[in-house]
Amino acid sequence: MSQGSGHVSDALPSAGTRPRRADGASGGARPGPEATSVVNLQQVSKFFGPVIALNDVTLQLQPGMTGLVGPNGAGKSTLIRLLTGQLRPSLGRVQVCGCDAWRAVAKRHIGYCADADAFYEEMSGRAFVRLIARLHGLRGRPARQRSEQLLEQVNMAHRADRPIASYSKGMRQRIKLAQALVHDPDLLVLDEPLNGVDPIGRLEILEQLRNLAAKGKAVLVSTHILDEMDKLADRILFLCRGRLIAAGSLAQVRTMLADHPLRVAISSSQPRALAARLVRHPTVLGLRFEGETGLIARVRPPHEFFRMLAELASEDGFEINRLRVLDASTEAVFDYLMETARHMR
Amino acid sequence: MSSLYAILHLTFLSARRMIWSRQTVLNLLLLVLATVACIAWSLREDPTPERFVAQILLPIYVAFLLPISCLCYATAGIAGDREEGTLVYLLATPLPRPLIYLAKYAAALTLTLIWTLGGLRLLGQAAGPVGAQVVALVSWPVLLASCAYVGLFQWFATLFSRATIVALGYALFLEVLIGSMPGIVKRLAVSFYAQILIFDATGDLGVASAGPHNPAMFLPIAASAATLVLLIATVGLFLLGGWTFSQREYV
Fold this sequence. Notes:
Low-confidence stretches of chain A: 1-31
Oligomer: heterodimer
Distance between the termini of chain B: 30 Å
Low-confidence stretches of chain B: none
Radius of gyration of chain B: 19 Å
Number of strands of chain B: 0
CATH class of the largest domain in chain A: Alpha Beta
């Protein structure tokens, strides 16, 4: 699957409850995303007594890196537990590589790095990873070789003989990552994998996750550190109050938030003349100068503003040296989506 | 084949963790206390098989030590993993849940039988020749009761997050209460069938008279029926536990 084909069935909140695809693709003769999906959730809801933890979620995950973000209580953990077969949906269907995620056979395709900091504390990291390899059916030498390979990969080989109880949080996260990869899964689900990891360790783990995604694995990462998502994920799932309120690449989601003003930094050799033209245009809500050559514009809707700016550059000869969107980070998009979700209620 | 290998590995892992657990320390402590009680009994009393059964075997071993030893390991397997949060690693493997349950059961049952039968032998030795003579005859009832208790307590572990406390409550209060009730209600207690089998096995030593003073209250059934009930309970509770474990969500 190429990068451009979309890792997630892109979706945004519509007036109703069902997300729609951002790329607007319809069925036709082409195979649907379900055909190539590693994960397929169809109208999945999960109730805990009277509480709806997940509400009518439909999505597909394909190879690549996907981020899962949402505030506390959004349903992230429930979604992860459904994907890893720890929970069964109250309604709908959860499939991983075509198998019902609850069934044991699906677990061959799933690697899970849980948020909970639980281990067989008396074991060494090496013994633990080897144990998980054996529980996945690897025997003797293959189990040892695979464990060593993964301990090297997570940079724990030289420290893996100490009891896990003596490990730092970062070392424990690395061991968790190693055990999740031990059976070479198609889907890797990581719940807050960078918690407690030092900055250098974070970079290493992020690099490993990117490599896995590049090798064709579907990697789903849940994190509350939104900055990481900008660097990490090709696609992001936004959850709020049990609903999938948006899904897609950050740019796709941001572009579709047409009614949300966007801040754009423009660098031009003629900032005052350009400002005079921009301020007359209805897409420009506000404008201020930034230094000698800079302008910061608040625009809505963004796509019309960019079209107008392109015309100014090509037809009126305005020199645009640099164009930068200031609030298209995951955090900014997330804040806006959460605000939108609140208003939908 | 790989599943079988994984299950064997899980069984050994579970057994190893159970051995090096606080449950073993507790079991050991209780066994030492019971052994001391047996030695004291053998010094003070005029030892007869009847007295050994009435004063040691039934009140100390059958009513207390046996269920405690069983619940220690039977709940440790699954409830221990649940409490420590490590169950998620087992449930994330491609092993079918009933097989995970089987591995835990096999580990718990093996250790429990070693402990209960070994403990029984030790108590018999501590009580002198009379004790040894009685103990040699009651291994089968103890084995059957152990199997039933392990099935029951491991089933508790699939149901309750604090299974050890629930099992303790059952063993020390409910089982005693049910076993002491008049009428057929006592037939719900494992210890009732264990007592019948013990009286039957030691009948030749004249121990039957050590049974409840009022046979009309005790309402014994045939030893063969008691054996059958314990076997059915063992298999039934194992299947029920396996089914429960395979259906429940553990988060």
